[in-house]
Amino acid sequence: MTAYSELANHFGRVAALSNAIGILSWDNAAMMPTGAAATRAESMALLDVLRHGMAVEPRIGDWLGAAEADDGLGPWERANLREIRRLWTVQTALPADLVEASSKAISVCEMRWRQARTDSDFAGLLPFLSEVLNLQRQIGQAKGEKLGLSPYDALLNDYEPGGRSEKIDALFDDLATFLPGFTQEVLALQARRPKTPEPQGPFAIEKQRALGLKMMAALGYDFERGRLDVSTHPFCGGADNDVRITTRYDESDFAKALMGVLHETGHALYEQGRPQAYMSQPVGQARGMSLHESQSLLVEMQACRSAAFIRFAAPLMREAFGGSGLAWEQEALLARYTRVEAGFIRVDADEVTYPAHVILRYRLEKALIADEMPLSELPFAWNAGMKALLGVTPPDDRRGCLQDVHWPSGGWGYFPTYTLGAMTAAQIFEAACKAEPEILPSIGRGDFSPLVGWLRSHIHSQASLYETDELLTHATGRPLDAGVFKAHLRRRYGGEG
Q: Of 83, 160, 264, 300, which is the active-site residue?
């Protein structure tokens, strides 16, 4: 076998183990009884250590050296070597005992978070979250020393390869300057318009689920390679060719679950559209989380809050819940789905206020990783940040610093990819609609195939063949341009469209 073949076979086995971990992680969040938490933590820790051991196999360095000298490899194979070397370099920075300790701490903390969130009990979660944070600092330090990065940038690099906080700081500072004034303009514009009534519940969960499944089918979700379930925090997970999504239901507001389903379906379409030929290889994985979040936010925000989508969806909503009257008309529903309102919950936020939620989390996690703020002060700092950025103060920690699962589950460095993803989504959707003018008219008829086909060709099927900026340039003609996102917000919400 050639050195490249050895690497491909080896990382195919790593992928098989990752698939098993992915299904167990989904089960943790969606199905597992709480009494199984300790046993599951042991199992997950063992699997994580085994995967880590495979990823740092000493022969990988020799194989890489030989394969990189092979002139007969094509562009996909070359890109795969780049991704394997990136993964190997990062993983060799970590000792196995740190991987095991982190895995166990995360499993325990995530289970504790569910009850703490329900009870609004930050103090009860604090010792478990402190352990996760301490281990994430150690991981960031170890990776940072290997990569020549700060601990935070080393953690960010796991989710956004090549991403750096210096660049994100500039982007987010610009948004933090732009958004407060723009938000006030939008709120004033809304206040001058006649108020429209809203659909009144209760909305039965089984009817909400049926509507969600119908929308997933319209988008092109492959139910033979996935499923829809319920979890405390909506997510997309599972394994290669087994892409599972979750949502959560509120009988007083069907829009929350529906938008959650649409968001996670955007993630799932990306996963289901990755190239089968390289599915088990690092090059076949999604190109970082800003691209991944762009696909979920493109579906949820760009496409499914458009007038075209509401034209298609309004009759289905009326049929699903037996709705009638002005509140169920297209114009009223569009006003509902494009209403801007400063709220407490990130996943329910509108496009205009959503970035403020992310900027807050990004600034806080940077300070916590750098040990510039005691974790015990997180609730106070969170509430102060919400007041400064959005003008609201959460009434309790359940609607404040306990609302997201990311930190308890070890996702430190993930949060900035949401707003990077929102900016990327605006740029990709603009490029897609310019290239395929039938995209919006087709969405109005419930036909998403022009949009999904363009995404399959330009984003999904490309996986990690290119670096992030290179992929975005290939797809849209330029690297990330925050001005596109601002222009989109002005058109949709500022009365310029």
A: 264
